[in-house]
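At this stage, I wrote out one protein's amino acid sequence and its backbone structure tokens, and that material follows here:
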Amino acid sequence: SYGPEIDPIVEEGNRALSEMGRLYMSIKDTEVRKKINELMRITDKITQDAIADPSDIPQIKKFMNYYLPTTIKLLNAYDRMSAQGIEGENLDKSMKNINEMLDAAIEAFEKRLDSLFEDQALDIETEIKVMNTMLAREGLSGNKDFEITTERTQTT
């Protein structure tokens, strides 16, 4: 148990992952399966972020309450349509629309994940600036900012 704020998110994330796993096994289209796999990977990372950084929970809740269930609902519709084993203009059009929507969903999921790491990126940037200032102040930087260099020594 991670606490009353985090537990529901982890449970919802796990439930969504197992539902997407079931859909992955059921849907035969390799392109759609690849997209489900990607959605699962990102969902798992977002779920893990709730544990690592509870301050992200408000953002994650919106994702869990709307984007994730809506995506799963559309995948379920796709699964039902593809299981019909019949072809028709409306059916094909709906399946194509869902398939294209999955691209938009992946992009949205990735943006959400990226925004969760925004604070950490700012923290790291600040740390590096402080480090550079300290090194310069101590005369240890050789008038250069702290950077990783790979120099090879030549032996002749």
